[in-house]
Design a protein that fits this description.
Blueprint lengths: L3 E6 L3 H12 L3 E7 L14 E2 L2 H6 L4 E4 L6 H10 L3 E5 L6 H14 L3 E4 L6 H11 L6 E9 L11 H17 L3 E9 L9 E8 L4 E7 L6 E8 L2 E6 L4 E7 L7 H4 L6 E7 L6 H13 L9 H20 L3 E2 L2
Parallel strand pairs: 1-2, 1-4, 2-3, 4-5, 5-6, 7-10
Antiparallel strand pairs: 7-11, 8-9, 8-15, 9-10, 11-12, 12-13, 13-14
Length: 329
């Protein structure tokens, strides 16, 4: 069997990184690229810059990566499904739950592989965290807290922090805990003069009563990317900027000081920072999607999971408008 023929729609900031990785992994040939606005980063190389997804499909491709703005995901995705082409679509999957569900249904009906580019799931720290939680290293999970804060990215124009950034934390939280979101409460503010929110604080409940808290904004001059999971045996801290994972265990020593001995909560125990391999998350994402297209067992972010993330984002937006908890689904 020859290499998979791949296309790319969208040659902006993310498109250039997708192109680099598609050209680097084994078993894939990038044969067609498209962007109606041109090629500002020189992604095309020796390929013609095509005008749209129709031209990419006409080039004869097995799968396509979609890195166009969110507003176009639905239209482009349905054309790929109609043509029988597998697709890896950048997150969020679509601009609202209805369009996300329609994409998931269209690909399922054709038996096509649909993946969503929630790249943080492939961060080495998050991959390690997921494995350790599944192994029972934390025992019963109590709480997940994420903080994703930093300066405003000028490339984002069509969505706010909930769809662009909170979607990362929603996906990784559901994935590492293997639990669905049930209830969402969120507060947003608008400080940068745009029509979309630039800060959100959300308190949510996952299946089984696990609580989550998410602090996300474009208004902090220093970047922070943390996922903190607290449970029966201690706390894991995953830093996705450095791809480090640290475990803070509950103490087991007996206190001899009478005042402390009366306290029946946890105490500080050992701290361990794990040495883990750190491959590029986007490379891992592309390798996993390639394998899924080839029919191999592979852990990708499915369209169904991507649609569930959009549902939670929509619930956050609704909660911020109504000042009430919103039940997901």
């Amino acid at each position: 069997m020859g290499n998979l023929r791949a296309g790319l729609v969208g040659l902006g900031s993310m498109g250039r990184h997708h192109s680099r990785n598609m050209r680097a992994i084994d078993g894939v040939d990038l044969v067609a690229v498209a962007d109606a606005t041109g090629d500002p980063h020189g992604v095309a190389g020796n390929l013609e810059v095509l005008p749209d997804v129709d031209a990419v499909i006409a080039a004869g491709i097995d799968y396509c990566v979609v890195a166009a703005p969110t507003a176009f995901h639905h239209e482009i995705g349905l054309k790929l499904a109609d043509a029988g082409v597998h697709a890896l679509i950048e997150k969020p999957l679509a601009k609202d739950p209805t369009e996300a569900r329609e994409l998931a249904q269209a690909f399922a009906a054709k038996g096509l592989i649909g993946g969503v580019g929630h790249i943080e799931r492939y961060n080495p720290a998050i991959q390690s965290l997921r494995a350790r939680l599944a192994n029972g290293d934390l025992g019963d999970i109590y709480q997940v807290t994420t903080r994703r804060q930093g300066p405003f990215p000028p490339r984002i124009a069509d969505v706010g922090v909930i769809m662009d950034l909170a979607s990362h934390d929603i996906d990784l939280t559901a994935w590492v805990t293997q639990r669905d979101y049930e209830l969402v409460a969120a507060r947003t503010i608008f400080k940068s003069g745009r029509q979309h929110e630039d800060m959100v604080a959300a308190t949510c409940q996952l299946a089984g009563g696990v609580m989550t808290n998410h602090l996300i904004n474009w208004l902090t001059p220093t970047k922070e990317r943390l996922c903190v999971v607290t449970g029966e045996k201690g706390t894991f801290v995953a830093d996705t900027m450095t791809a480090d994972i640290t475990f803070y265990g509950n103490g087991v020593q007996v206190e001899t000081w009478d005042g402390l001995a009366q306290f029946h909560g946890v105490t500080e125990g050992d701290m361990v920072r794990f040495a883990i391999p750190k491959p590029e998350p986007l490379r891992t994402e592309h390798e996993r999607f390639r394998d899924a297209v080839l029919g191999k067992e592979s852990d990708i972010v499915t369209f169904g999971q991507g649609a569930a993330v959009v549902e939670v984002c929509a619930a956050m937006l609704e909660s911020s408008r109504t000042n009430a908890f919103v039940r997901v689904g």
